[in-house]
What does this fold into?
Amino acid sequence: MKYGGLIIEKKEYVLLKKLMTLSGYHKDITYKKSIAKLHEELKTAIVKDERDMPTDVIRFNSIVTIAAEEGWQKNFQLVKPSDSDLKNNKLSILTPMGTAVIGYAKGDTLLWEFPSGEKTLTVANVEQKNNYIDVNTVL
It folds into this structure.
């Protein structure tokens, strides 16, 4: 990892923990595994103030390009669950892909378990579209 671990902005960290806690009742096994893995990764995450956040780290509202070793690419904006809109490539932070990439930086490679099996992904690009994050947001 480019920065030695996940990088998460303080307010986004608080919101992410809330969302993960509230999503604990989901029945899908892959979904639960993704949340559990992110929960473990957050234990060692580097939490930073807004002004100290690197611009190439995936955050809430970032527009992300992910490349898989199989050759496919996917572009999406990472959003809160309430803003999810697959038709417009807005992917919830709580989906397996969303939990896989949050806190990673451009150029990072990660291994993640998807419904179709484990995949090696590379963060090909990150564009910031950061909007105000309300930590009092609920699912």
